[in-house]
Amino acid sequence: MDAVNTSRLSLRPVQLTDLEELYALSRMPEVNLFNPSGPDRSIDEARERLEDWLRDWETDGIGYCTARMLESDAYVGYVGLAARTFRDERVLNLAYRIRPEFQGSGLVTEACRALIEAARPRWSGHRIRVLTKQDNTPSIAVATRLGFTHAPDLDDTPDPGDINLFLDL
C-alpha cells in the first residue's frame, strides 16, 4: 500500500525519521488515557516499536502510517492497519493515536475510512479488529461510524474491560 491522501490528511508508511514525533506523542498523557501499555519509557522503547512497525510493512505490505495535515504538514499522529493473528485467524488490527489538538475533529474517522478502502483490494475477505477498553467511548464511536460491530463472545481478553469490534472487508 502506498501513501494515501484524504481531503485534509497525508497518510504515509511510518519511517525512522518519525521517531522524535512518535516519542513525543507517546509521552502525552491525553493520548494514553486508554493505552494499556502507557507511554513509552524511553526513546529506545519508541524506536523498538517503530522498527517493529517497519517490519510489518516489509513483511505484509501494510502497517501504521504517519498522519500529517495536507496543507500545513503539521504532525497529527499515526493511524493504520497491521496484520496480526487473533485466535488462529489473520486479521488487520486498526490502531491510532493523535495529538490532543486534533481529537474530535473527524480526522481519525477520515483517515481510517481511507486506509480501509486502500486495504480492501489485497485484504478482501479478512476482518479488521479494534481492541479497546469498554469505557473508551471516543474509539467505540469511531469504530461504530466505520461499521464495526461489537463481538461480546470474543471479549475474553487477558485484560478485563477490553472489548473487540470487527468489520468484514
Strand and helix layout:
Layout: E1 4-5, E2 9-13, H1 19-26, H2 43-60, E3 64-69, E4 75-86, E5 89-98, H3 107-123, E6 127-133, H4 137-145, E7 149-150, E8 162-168
Parallel strand pairs: 5-6
Antiparallel strand pairs: 1-2, 2-3, 3-4, 4-5, 6-8, 7-8
Helix pairs in contact: 1-2
Write structural notes for this entry.
With 169 residues, the chain is of the alpha+beta class. It has one domain: Aminopeptidase. It contains four helices and eight strands; from the N terminus they run ββααβββαβαββ. The chain has helices at residues 19-26, 43-60, 107-123, 137-145, and strands spanning 4-5, 9-13, 64-69, 75-86, 89-98, 127-133, 149-150, 162-168. A hairpin with a 2-residue loop joins strand 4 (75-86) and strand 5.
Number of helices: 4
Structural class: alpha+beta
Low-confidence stretches: none
The count of domains is: 1
CATH architecture: 3-Layer(aba) Sandwich
Just give the CATH class: Alpha Beta
Describe the oligomeric state of these chains in a short phrase.
single chain
Number of strands: 8
Across the major sheet, the strand order is: 1-2-3-4-5-6-8-7
Q: Strand portion, in percent?
A: 25-35%
Element pattern in H and E:
EEHHEEEHEHEE
